[in-house]
Design brief:
Length: 313
């Protein structure tokens, strides 16, 4: 059973604006899933439908095997959602906030304690436990906000742009925490982001959404194979040798393109694994000095632009 199964989901707003257009998607249980797309692509609309805030116009949604429409109560008690704005109470301490949240879900004393300790550990919050929330930084509040949403033991956690506005360090520690929630608590995580690097580092599966349509869904590794694959990079010792090396490389029949960037040559070949050894031997035989040769993978940014360019128009 999938965590989410979405078929032909369509949302047309009152002003006839179509935000989701026969959107299909499946999300496996226990994975970290990232939904990536530009402003206005339909990400928040989708999260709002999945978390029961918004009614779809057409299409079917199953969450944990149950139809969304006829099982709202079941679904609400099995998911948690962290919206973009922080929803902690500034006048309470961090521990009080977590107790308050646990109380809302009717957790008994023992469960409350166990869960609080577990989440304080995962989110690295022990230094702040008795501090009033108003004295904490934005990044810590955000961590608390997500920890609070986990008090109800949800099976799926929805996060709408969880790291927006964070500095690099806070963002990276958030990634570690989300990975821990997944591995230690077995929660399925569904997040939206604008940051390709974030999706790449964190997720098991990525989906690109454009104009309310699912453009492509796959693992980060497979997405990288789709596009600009088979690149080998050589770094020359001396930038003066790059042009000469480029000419020599172009004589190889499996080399299709060479571009030069300072001391680096980016070489497009037919099969990077297959031709790597031969190319390596060949470069050595030229006796022109080079520092390194490696197979390079495209970044997700390149993939996104490639895919949006090719399929999104
Ligand atoms: N309440 C609404 N009424 C009418 N149109 C809406 C409403 N909410 C969103 N839209 C439109 O639906 C489309 C999708 O918006 P949505 O907020 O889902 O995009 P998004 O991917 O979350 O964008 P962002 O990255 O900017 O948050 C946009 O064209 C938006 O203008
Ligand atoms: Mg949005």
């Amino acid at each position: 059973m999938d965590a989410l199964s979405i078929r032909k989901l369509t949302k047309i707003y009152a002003d006839k604006k179509s935000a989701l257009n026969e959107f299909d998607l499946s999300v496996k249980q226990g994975e970290i899933f990232s939904l990536l797309g530009s402003n206005g692509a339909g990400k928040t609309t989708l999260i709002n439908i999945l978390t029961t805030f918004l009614k779809p116009t057409l299409g079917t949604v199953q969450i944990l095997g149950k139809d969304l429409e006829s099982n709202m109560q079941f679904i609400r008690s099995n998911i948690a959602c962290v919206a973009q704005h922080v929803s902690t109470d500034d006048n309470l301490t961090l521990a009080e906030n977590m107790r308050f949240q646990g109380g809302l879900y009717g957790l008994g004393k023992a469960k409350m304690k166990e869960r609080t300790n577990q989440l304080v550990e995962i989110f690295n919050l022990s230094d702040y436990i008795d501090k009033k929330v108003e004295t904490l930084s934005g990044g810590i509040k955000r961590r608390l906000d997500i920890a609070m949403s986990m008090m109800s033991y949800p099976k799926i956690l929805f996060l709408d742009e969880p790291t927006v506005g964070m500095d690099v360090q806070s963002r990276q520690s958030m990634w570690r925490m989300l990975s821990k929630i997944k591995s230690e608590l077995g929660v399925t995580i569904f997040l939206t982001t604008h940051y390709l690097e974030e999706a790449d580092m964190l997720s098991d599966t990525i989906c690109f959404i454009k104009d309310g349509k699912n453009i492509i869904q796959n693992t980060p590794a497979n997405l990288k194979k789709f596009t600009r694959k088979n690149m080998i990079q050589i770094t020359m010792t001396d930038s003066q040798d790059t042009e000469r090396m480029k000419e020599l490389l172009l004589q190889k029949d499996y080399v299709t393109e060479v571009s030069v960037d300072d001391r680096s040559l980016n070489i497009q070949v037919e099969h990077s694994q297959q031709h790597f050894f031969d190319l390596n031997t060949y470069v050595l035989s030229t006796r022109i000095g080079f520092e390194g040769i490696e197979i390079t993978e495209p970044t997700l940014d390149e993939i996104f632009l490639d895919i949006i360019g090719e399929r999104g128009n």
